[in-house]
Amino acid sequence: MSQNPPNLRPDLAPRARFDEAPRPGQPTIGMVSLGCPKALVDSERILTRLRAEGYQISPDYAGADAVIVNTCGFLDSAKAESLDAIGEALVENGKVIVTGCLGAEPDYIREHHPNILAVTGPHQYEQVLDSVHKAVPPSPDPFVDLLPASGVKLTPRHYSYLKISEGCNHKCKFCIIPDMRGKLASRPAHAVMREAEKLVDAGVKELLVISQDTSAYGVDIKHAEDRGHRAHITDLARDLGSLGAWVRLHYVYPYPHVRNLIPLMAEGLILPYLDIPFQHAHPDTLKRMARPAAAAKTLDEIAAWRADCPDITLRSTFIVGYPGETEEEFETLLDWLDEAQLDRVGCFQYENVDGARSNDLPDHVPTEVKQERWDRFMEKAQAISEAKLQAKVGKTLEVIVDDIDEDGIATCRTWADAPEIDGNLFIDEGTEGLSVGDIAKVEVDEAGEYDLWGVLKGQ
């Protein structure tokens, strides 16, 4: 059985899935969704509107009347990937509409691809729809084109991303996301809950809460309360936990009030899982990043979280080779990782990004040094992961079933595993009674570096 590689990009969303056949004569729009889960939610909103207007959605370019490419601008490598996808869509289809984060740089896109039909920035839904209408006029059939109550979802039916805010108030020097997506703009809590209730009613078993800064949710609207729901992450987590689905929190900055979430995890209201972008551990590096330099206090917080909820899983991402990073600073990061013992870790080698203030910092780290540090970092992270997974052998864990292949092998995830970016638990036999989306109890009988294997309890 293959195992997850140690270099999974944590900014990538799961692959979009489509499972409907078009009716005769139905106008069809292809969709290529790149980037993070937040972009995937934007794609879902666009496609829900198009589906309501009678368009069929295609997973590829062939047979589509036009193609929307939702781009990523997170790193220069992501920009290059987006440009390649646009170019491929132009070759294969010819009618291409570009949206998403890279769409905030229309001149840059048109410089490389002048023949695209239109460019819009992130979450500019109306402009995307206008561009589609011009390229491919709608032709709805109200007796046939029925829209699912939960809208068009690009993830499997048993889990869904739930975006609670846009934008970010941080000014990290390496990041241009706030320039593209703006300042923090929280959704009203009652609107988030209404969407979550519809998703659960439609069969969603796991809600993945996302934003640029989940723990800052509601700050911009002064934690407004409306229709019985308060716009604060602790209140929202408690409300979401009442729906009976798994609730997983992503992109949580370690503000002091995050400790108030831990009792909710210990009670089983939300999953004992925190995805926190620490980025580094040395105070000087964090200062150059323009991030809070409190690595020692963070270790104290981690210890307190684990004291209150021993089963908590901690996931984070880091940057190695940041401008000015010395060998001493990097070794401090390795020592911190040894002490923190994080369960899930992703790592980037620093890249310049057009518009980022970090580009102008002195003492950029040579490429070969960045690679060498990345290798050392991932070697340590892999050893920690392997030891933590080995400690789960013999335990019974609750899992959600993501896939069952033609040989009957089930790919599942435990509470500790987010889709696509974390590990899996595989069941090799006795899966005849399982279906995708089921939640089952499994006894772990084998562990690897990133994945587990087990048998259904009672088999």
UniProtKB/TrEMBL annotation:
Membrane-spanning parts:
none
Q: EC no.? A: 2.8.4.4
Protein name, as recorded: Ribosomal protein uS12 methylthiotransferase RimO
List residues of the TRAM domain: 390-458
Domain of life, source organism: Bacteria
Please tell me where [4Fe-4S] cluster 2 binds in this chain: C168, C172, C175
So what does this one do? Answer: Catalyzes the methylthiolation of an aspartic acid residue of ribosomal protein uS12.
In terms of InterPro entries, this protein maps to: Elp3/MiaA/NifB-like_rSAM, Methylthiotransferase, Methylthiotransferase_N, Methylthiotransferase_N_sf, NA-bd_OB-fold, Ribosomal_uS12_MeSTrfase_RimO, rSAM, rSAM_horseshoe
Which is a Pfam family this sequence falls into?
Answer: Radical_SAM
| Chain ranges of the Radical SAM core domain | 154-387
Compositionally biased tracts (Basic and acidic residues): 12-22
The broad enzyme category this protein falls into is transferase
What does the record's cofactor remark say about binding?
Answer: Binds 2 [4Fe-4S] clusters. One cluster is coordinated with 3 cysteines and an exchangeable S-adenosyl-L-methionine.
Q: Which organism is it from?
A: Marivivens donghaensis
Major location (coarse): cytoplasm
Question: Which cofactors, if any, are listed as required?
Answer: [4Fe-4S] cluster
| Protein family per UniProt | Belongs to the methylthiotransferase family. RimO subfamily.
Q: Which reaction does it catalyse?
A: L-aspartate(89)-[ribosomal protein uS12]-hydrogen + (sulfur carrier)-SH + AH2 + 2 S-adenosyl-L-methionine = 3-methylsulfanyl-L-aspartate(89)-[ribosomal protein uS12]-hydrogen + (sulfur carrier)-H + 5'-deoxyadenosine + L-methionine + A + S-adenosyl-L-homocysteine + 2 H(+)
Q: Which keywords label this protein?
A: 4Fe-4S, Cytoplasm, Iron, Iron-sulfur, Metal-binding, Ribonucleoprotein, Ribosomal protein, S-adenosyl-L-methionine, Transferase
Location within or outside the cell: Cytoplasm
Q: Which SUPFAM superfamilies match?
A: Radical SAM enzymes
Q: Which GO terms describe its molecular function?
A: protein methylthiotransferase activity
A single cellular component GO annotation: ribosome
